[in-house]
Amino acid sequence: MYGPCPKGHWSANAGLRLPHRHLTPGRRYRVARAFTDYDGHRHEAGETWTFLGASFSPHEDGQSLFVSLDGSQEWDIRLQWRPETQGAVLDALGDFIQPVE
Fold it and tell me: Is residue 18 part of a domain?
């Protein structure tokens, strides 16, 4: 699927666990509309994970969503905020990623 982050990358940095748009750290979300991330990994509808935090890198318009699928390993879903890449996903993030009720 996609690669793990270094162990404890986000959990060790609780001060960085800020909300991102409609995503709240510690809350479970599901992929409502499939999308492909910057690394070419496909995230199919129904995929669920816990949101840990996010970071933006102005270099190359990089947006990372840090998540955990299993409650122990942390994963980085890398996206690029450009029209030719994942810009449409990031512009309508609430249509692609929704809270698990």
Answer: yes
Q: What is the pTM of this model?
A: 0.81
Q: Where are the beta strands (DSSP E) in the chain?
A: 28-31, 35-36, 42-43, 48-57, 62-68, 75-80, 97-99
User: pLDDT per residue over 53-93, tens digit each?
Assistant: 988 888 889 899 999 988 888 999 999 999 999 999 999 99
- The answer to whether position 61 is within a domain reads yes
- Other CB atoms within 10 Å distance of the CB of residue 80: 18
Has residue 2 been placed in a domain? no
Domain total in the chain = 1
